[in-house]
Design brief:
heterodimer, A: alpha/beta, Rossmann fold, Elongation Factor Tu (Ef-tu), domain 3, 4 domains, six-stranded antiparallel β-barrel, B: alpha/beta, two-stranded antiparallel ribbon, 8 helices, 8 strands, about 10% strand, globular
Chain lengths: ~600, ~270
């Protein structure tokens, strides 16, 4: 079992850990003497805390600066203790420790009472989803083992935890230094009838994999090391088996599990379940990549761009509106921004910071985030693994959060429903997509040339259409303006562009060309990133290839290919590059002249 | 699910994250039990393949059997093996008599640094474990090193919910530690379960001695033991209270030997 010990600086975490190790005979031979020798060399009195502080700096300052892990065992089971630092400066280390633990001991000094970090750590434990917490009131020897002191702290901290809806499993009065109520019962505190620390630890329950929750398999990667095309990832919750139809979120692509791959096992597995790192193959080759989550139709995840979260912040710069951050949720990486701060909170007092449009390091907030592209998620209370995320600022993980609510994106839902309805009622032609692909020498696809106006997109698109045509491919340049003057003639311009109708009509026309097996080329300036993903929803499973013409250092979104303005102006070579890319992606497969 | 499965699943997840996020990756193979288990896990993660090159730092003082073992399995398992050696230091006569820490730093740390530069690796996968010694207990799964190879253990990235630091400033390189959460006993239990062929230096010889940790011949001591197979090693470890690296002379050189070595890029 993985345990974390948290609490205010100097409340005795390292001493407790040292004591636990010594009292369970978990120290290697010679380690105690080795540390005692160092103390002698440096002229210090031996303390149990020194056993852990293997780093020079820590002993000089007398504080734990980083999370370290120590192993010990009781008769019941082995433990890993994560010793998390209590100093405010090292909050990110505390979070690292606590996020990886199954149970927590929160230490409070009987003499000093409840302090700033006692509250902050309590709040963070809740935010990190920690359900098993026991409060250890340490240094009882300094207050003459007085039950009054213990009960006062217990009552104060219980009120604090209850205000957040958390209940501690137990409050235990101890002296880690003297070894009282750690492994052995204290003779000085006969008024306490509850468990010792070790007895408490043995009562905590092991975290079991979430096999009974809905199935979620976020893809890490797709491997083609041999003839197999393996989708690899870790099952975060639920179970699935060979023959199940999986739906990938947020792309909405579908496939049937053909096999479950494994190396060096006697029998190939037939099922997969939560916590396993697995690989599956599908009966049909569909294009899915890292970031998609495989789910079952019975329990789909939420797909949205706008959601509420409780966030803690560890960055040097403030978390604020108007800045762009990277959100990492399972294997999805998406740009996002803070839409609004609903409540900024000082985590040491739990007081609301009024009218504050940012939070500083070590504070927390209830806020609403918006992502650039749709993201698949669950509420933290339904599936913890897909209901939490971290925020990256520049190169660093600076914050983390849990999802508490979401705004359904009506537009996305609308397109998805439309595509679903249309696809299930579509009259299939006797000429299949495969037959068309074989005849034409290419799969149906859409090539979207994007970039700022004046970048030379239209002339490049025209050349591309021409070149493909001369090579006997079915190419068609679909101009958004042509759709507007004809199909869009029933609406005025403002209305046409404002409620997504332009995107819908364009997407549906493109879908028809795709169904006819064409390579559709488009350049429309009228569409933004969000529109692209909506168009993609309407024409899938056909691929969209985005070619962005830009000389900016950071392109917008995630184009498949980037051409600088100069490169795009050289039509011959630019078109060739696009053709090479299409060949590489097996969109252009070449004609079979034996027909 | 049993504990070994849990450890295996977590390590495979980390290996796959590493492979997806870093272009020029290499994996250090010291021929010892830990990095051999790591290699086995990579073959599990990538379904029988090891798409990551393996680097062995040959100090020239390694126990000869280790080289035989290395070459045999490199061929048998179709591995892409890259051997690094600090030839300049060896030509100038570097050995442990010049000081163990000096020697480790020249032949291992510098040897590694040279091969990384030469091959352009920006990420290195290592089989270190938290239970080995104090400084390793503080490591992260994804642990950045600056351009001078140095480890800033006072300012490490947070690591939560298996979201690792995968974006970096220019010039940083990354160490990845998929076995960090394993113990020595876990490693042997896994070797037994998976029937991984392990070098026989770990098994007791006729004189009743075996190696518990492998390194250079002059600086690695054997221990007294009757354990002649994996099962017996597991039984022996369940009762021992002496530490795994007690046979490694460089650790005992001074109080903070390992911290000093590791802050400057030692494994």
């Amino acid at each position: 079992m993985k345990l974390v010990i948290v609490g205010h600086v100097d409340h005795g975490k390292s001493t407790l850990v040292g004591r636990l190790m010594a009292d369970t005979d978990s120290l290697p031979t010679g380690k105690l003497d080795f540390v005692k020798d160092i103390c002698d060399q440096q002229g210090k009195t031996f303390e149990f805390a020194f056993l852990l502080d293997a780093l020079e700096e820590e002993q000089e300052q007398g504080i734990t600066i980083d999370t370290s892990q120590i192993f010990f065992k009781t008769k019941k089971r082995p433990y890993v203790i994560i010793d998390a630092p209590g100093h405010k400066e090292f909050l990110k280390n505390m979070v690292t420790g606590a996020a990886n633990a199954e149970a927590a001991l929160l230490l409070i000094d009987a003499y000093e009472g409840v302090q700033e970090q006692s509250r902050r750590h309590g709040y963070l434990l809740r935010l990190l989803g920690m359900k098993q917490v026991a409060v250890v009131v340490n240094k009882m020897d300094l207050v003459k083992h007085d039950p009054e002191v213990f009960y006062k702290i217990k009552s104060e901290y219980t009120n604090f935890l209850e205000s957040m809806g958390v209940t501690a499993r137990e409050y235990i009065p101890v002296s880690a230094k003297l070894g009282e109520n750690i492994a052995h019962r204290s003779e000085n505190m006969t008024w306490y009838q509850g468990p010792t620390v070790l007895e408490m630890l043995d009562q905590f329950e092991d975290k079991l994999p979430e096999v009974n929750l809905p199935f979620r398999l976020p893809l890490q990667d797709v491997y083609k090391f041999d003839e197999r095309r393996i989708l690899a990832g870790r099952v975060e919750s639920g179970t699935a088996k060979i023959g199940d139809e999986v739906i990938f979120a947020p792309s909405n692509k579908k496939g049937i599990i053909k096999s479950i791959e494994a190396w060096s096992v006697e029998n190939k597995p037939q099922t997969i379940e939560a916590s396993q790192s697995v690989g599956i193959t599908l009966t049909e080759q569909i294009f899915v990549e890292r970031g998609n989550i495989a789910t079952l139709a019975s329990d789909p995840p939420i797909v949205t761009t706008t959601f509420d979260a409780n966030v803690f912040w560890m960055g040097k710069k403030h978390l604020q509106r108007g800045e762009s951050y990277l959100i990492k949720l399972t294997t999805q990486n998406v740009e996002c921004e803070v839409l609004r701060f609903n409540k900024a909170i000082d985590a040491s007092t739990l007081e609301t910071l009024p009218d504050q449009d940012f939070i500083a390091k070590n504070d927390v907030a209830e806020l609403t985030l918006r992502t650039r592209q749709p993201i698949a998620l669950d509420l933290f209370t339904s599936i913890p693994e897909t209901g939490r995320f971290v925020l990256v600022d520049d190169y660093d993980v600076c914050g983390g959060g849990i999802i508490t609510g979401f705004t359904p994106l009506s537009e996305i839902d609308r397109y998805r429903d439309e595509a679903r309805y249309r696809d299930s009622h579509w009259i299939q032609s006797a000429v299949t997509p495969e037959m068309r692909a074989y005849r034409y020498g290419h799969r149906a696809a859409m090539i979207l040339i994007t970039g700022k106006s004046g970048a030379g997109k239209a002339s490049l698109a025209g050349k591309l259409e021409e070149k493909l045509f001369h090579q006997n491919f079915q190419s068609y340049l679909l101009d958004g303006r042509n759709i507007k003057v004809g199909l869009g003639a029933d609406m005025d311009q403002e209305q046409y562009f404002s409620d997504g109708e332009a995107v819908r009509r364009f997407g549906e026309v493109a879908k028809l060309f795709i169904d006819a097996g064409h390579v559709v080329i488009s350049t429309s300036n009228a569409f933004n990133q969000e529109d692209h993903s909506n168009i993609s929803l309407l024409i899938e499973p056909a691929p969209i290839v985005e070619v962005q013409v830009t000389s900016d250092k950071f392109p917008k979104g995630k184009p498949d290919m980037i051409l600088t303005l100069d490169e795009a102006a050289e039509h011959e070579s630019a078109v060739q590059k696009i053709l090479d890319y299409l060949k590489d992606k097996k969109i252009l497969t070449g004609h079979n002249y034996s027909i | 699910m049993d504990h070994l499965n849990e450890l295996e699943n977590q390590s495979i997840y980390i290996l796959r994250e590493a492979y997806k996020n870093f272009k020029n990756l290499a994996m250090l193979w010291s021929i010892g039990k830990d990095s051999t288990v790591l290699l086995w896990l990579a073959r599990k993660a990538f379904f029988g393949h090891c798409p990551i090159p393996l680097v062995h730092i040959d100090t020239s003082y390694k126990i000869p059997k280790m080289i035989e073992y290395r070459d045999r399995y490199a061929q048998e398992w179709g591995l892409n093996l890259v051997v690094g050696q600090n030839k300049k230091a060896l030509a100038e006569g570097m050995n442990h008599e010049k000081g163990r820490i000096v020697c480790c730093e020249a032949l291992k740390t510098q040897g590694l640094s040279q091969v990384m530069e030469q091959e352009g690796y920006t990420g290195l996968i290592l089989g270190i474990r938290r239970d080995e010694e104090g400084t390793r207990a503080k490591e992260r799964y994804f642990s950045p090193r600056d351009k001078n190879f140095e480890w800033n253990f006072k300012d490490q990235p947070p690591e939560l919910w298996d979201q690792f630091k995968t974006t970096f400033a220019e010039g940083t390189h990354i160490r990845i530690h998929p076995l960090l959460h394993w113990t020595e006993l876990n490693v042997w239990e896994y070797i037994e379960k998976e029937k991984i062929p392990i070098i026989d230096l770990y098994f007791a010889n006729e004189e009743g001695r075996r190696y518990r940790s492998l390194g250079c011949a002059p600086c690695t001591g054997s221990i007294e033991s009757k354990a002649s197979n994996v099962r017996e090693i597991i039984e022996e470890l369940k009762d021992t209270t002496s530490s795994e690296r007690s046979g490694r002379a460089q650790d005992q050189e001074d109080t903070y030997a390992m911290q000093k070595l590791r802050a400057r890029g030692y494994m």
